[in-house]
Amino acid sequence: MQDSAFxxxxxxxxxxxxxxxxxxxxAVGDINKNFPITMASxxxxxxxxxxxxxxxxxxKGQMIFYSLNTSVxxxxxxxxxxxxx
Length: 85
Prior knowledge:
The chain has 5 helices and 3 strands. By secondary structure, the protein is an alpha+beta fold. The chain has a single domain (about 1-85), classed as Winged helix-like DNA-binding domain superfamily/Winged helix DNA-binding domain (Arc Repressor Mutant, subunit A).
């Protein structure tokens, strides 16, 4: 899990997505308004974040909402901080 999470965090767009999701859950269209990328590129970034378990999805009708997976993110940060002790 950690390797895929660190890979996901290596990209500035994905870090930006996580910063947005830290504030509130968002639909794909709302996330896309914050980045000058195509919907296909955004979907690729979201897929990487989802495979790394950094985000989770919830379907509400036809919309898919993304949210930060705080438990995995906290564990990742604990591992990262332990590296520097």
